[in-house]
Amino acid sequence: MKKRIKNFFARNIILMAVVLIAGLLIMNVALIFQYKKTIVKNNNIKQEAKAISFKVEQLISYTLHNMDLGIRAYGVTKNREMLGPTTSAIKGVDAMFSELETRLVAQSYDISGLKDLKKTFVEYGEFVTQMEHMVDMDSMHTFQKMLEEDRGLKVFMHWNDVGVKAQIFEDTMLWKAEDSYQAAIDGNIYLQIFILVVSLPTLGFIVYKIKSDDRSRLSLLASLEENNRKYVFNPGAEVYFDNPKEMIERSISNLQQASGFIEDISVGKYDTEWTSLNDANRSLNEVNLAGRLVNMRDQLKQMKKEEERRLWTNEGLTKFSETVRNYQNNFLDLSNEVVRFLTKYMGAQQGGLFVLKEDETEPYLELTACYAFDRKKFVERRIEIGVGLIGQAYLEGQTTFLTRVPQGYTYITSGMGEATPRSVVIVPMKYNDKTEAIIELASLEEFEDYQVAFLEKAGEFVASALQSVRTTEKMQSLLESSQRQAEEMRSTEEEMRQNLEELQATQEEMVRKQHELDRVQAADAERARITSESNRQATNKIIEKLKATEEELRKLKMA
Fold first, then answer.
1. C-alpha count within 13 angstroms, C-beta hemisphere, residue 392
2. Tens of pLDDT along 93-123?
3. Dihedral pair phi/psi, residue 387, rounded to 5°
4. CA-CA distance, 410 to 413, in Å (whole number)?
5. Are the CB atoms for 462 and 469 separated by under 8 Å?
6. Which letter, b or e, does each residue of 20-37 get, where b requires 16 or more Cβ atoms within 10 Å of its Cβ?
7. How many Å apart are CA 402 and CA 421, to the nearest integer?
């Protein structure tokens, strides 16, 4: 047990000495703060006592003096400007006594006498005001009698009873504060002497102990440095084992740097660097902690980068598919929204969508939407299949990625002028292996491979939507055509029905007219027969008459 206690003291003697000094320092700091607090408190008390004494003195030197001086000068000169000090002093009575009462109450002083003194000052102020009225009414005899009463002396005597006591109280407070202040200064001096007396031998013992342990510690530090270089970090510089402090600080620095490096990695700061690692010592740190941490950082950085790209791609496809769904019923709106979204999301400055047109004998690509292009360049823009980069991209069905854009191919226009883009990507948008459109984006920054891959995936949505829109528009066109033909057939049937009704009416009219004609013809035939018979009978009668006439003539001739 004794040996254990002895070993404990042997191992912890320096710690105990340091704890002793630390305890003394902490006590010193605590007492210094206490002394400082006492000193500040006493300084405040002294300042407050001086301020209160000054205020009490001002009751006579300022307030009472100005009341007397102003009213006497006014009585002699009858100049109202001379009343300025008197008026100011009377108005300031309440404020001055209120301030004194507040400060004295804070010092636990009995202010009953001060309240009586305030009443005396207020009454004297009213008396001075009466004297002013006497002067105003030119009652100088009364003014003189009031002046001879010398009530100011009574006020002074009352102040002498109350104010002097208050000043004596403040002087007492001032003396006590001085004594307390001096006691705090003396106590601090004694404490510093005590700490110095205790600390110096203790520090001497610590120095002696450290020196005596240097040789054994040096070998331990050498082993520590060797293992530190082997397992933690090897700076590649020469080591001087006669400087333990430097070796310890280097070991601590390496551990702190490793800790900070790990902490940065744990919170996702993958751009952190091992500050001492450079090209000169990199080969020395391939298998130790520094090298492994750097390799782990690079792997995590790459994983984070890939994850961010994956999230960026998935989020973009989700938003883009929502945009496509929202506008898939209108070809023009869909084209505009597709170009606008992809241009902004890709960080490009301009974009254009070229859609396949198959209405004529030869298919071609037509610019249906653009974003931030010089629109005059693309008015009635038509690209034949296989012509230019866009036409060739459609023909080959492969993405074209330009990082060296030919001069004059296109320009990005802004308020600062025109600039040739740094990269241009041309992506065929396919659905069921058929290219439905081509999108072209231009940027002042170079596109990454994952961005191009995202654009190709987004193209599948666009191609599908364009095919759907085309199908929908064709179905709508066929439906409208069918409805139009049905309407024309209904109109034709109605016209035929009306014509049939008119034809039936015409036939009925023709039958009626035919019947009428037959009746008329029958009547005409009867009339003709009757006329013919009448004519025949008339003719016979005429012939008979002629014959009779001839017979008579003949008889006459014979006669």
1. 5
2. 888 888 888 888 887 878 888 788 888 888 8
3. -100, 130
4. 10
5. no
6. ebeebeeebeebeeebee
7. 10
CA dist., res. 332 & res. 374, Å (int) = 19
Q: Would you call 406 helix, strand, or coil by DSSP?
A: coil
For residue 433, the SS3 value is coil
Distance CA 121, CA 156 (A): 10
Given a cut of 70, whether residue 288 has pLDDT beyond it is yes
> What percentage of the chain carries pLDDT values higher than 90?
0
Q: pLDDT-derived band of residue 241, with 50, 70 and 90 as boundaries? A: low
Beta partners for 418? 413
Cβ burial of 83 (10 Å; 0-12, 13-18, 19+) is middle
- Which residues 6+ apart lie within 8 Å of 200 measured at CB? none
Is there a contact between 454 and 309 (Cβ–Cβ < 8 Å)? no
Which contacts qualify for 336-339: CB closer than 8 Å, 24 or more apart?
A: 336/369, 338/369, 338/439, 338/462, 339/369, 339/370, 339/371, 339/439
Q: Which is more confidently placed, 263 or 41?
A: 263
DSSP state of 434: E
Dihedrals phi, psi of 330, to nearest 5 degrees:
-135, 115
Task: For residue 378, name the pLDDT band (cuts at 50, 70, 90).
Answer: very low
- Which residues of 285-433 form beta strands (DSSP E)? 350-357, 364-371, 382-384, 400-402, 412-414, 417-419, 423-431
The vertex-13 CA angle with 7 and 15, nearest 5°, equals: 120
| CB contact at 8 A, 56 and 166 | yes
Look at residue 142 in the predicted model and tell me its pLDDT.
86
**pLDDT for 373 beyond 70:** no
Query: What angle, rounded to 10 degrees, do the helices at 112-136 and 65-77 form?
Result: 10
> Is residue 385 scored above 80 in pLDDT?
yes
Pairwise CA distance, residues 183 & 382, whole Å: 101
Which residue type, as a one-letter code, is found at position 46?
Answer: K
